[in-house]
Design goal:
Length: about 90
């Protein structure tokens, strides 16, 4: 029997040809704590901050670090942010 091993496709040195992996980070505001939270279970990542801008900056730094620590870092990682609507209690 002959076995053929398939290798991963070669995308060369041009980063525009590399496939990318996108992680959607969920962002929500906790009214009681007065903090923003960012979370993604695939990275895994959960951070909090009083400022949305600071939180996004922290996620951009922490996400690649966490991916690298978990051997999941890809050459072209993209982050998207999904802000959850606030619940209104009546």
């Amino acid at each position: 029997m002959n076995y053929v091993m398939e290798s991963e496709p070669s995308y060369g040195e041009n980063p525009k040809k590399w496939p990318h992996i996108e992680y959607a980070v969920t962002v929500a505001f906790d009214d009681e704590a007065q903090k923003w939270y960012a979370q993604n279970d695939d990275i895994p990542l959960i951070l909090e901050d009083y400022s949305l801008d600071k939180l996004v900056s922290r996620v951009k730094i922490a996400a690649p670090e966490m991916l690298e620590m978990n051997n999941l870092l890809h050459k072209d990682v993209k982050l998207s942010f999904k802000i959850e609507p606030q619940a209104v209690v009546v």
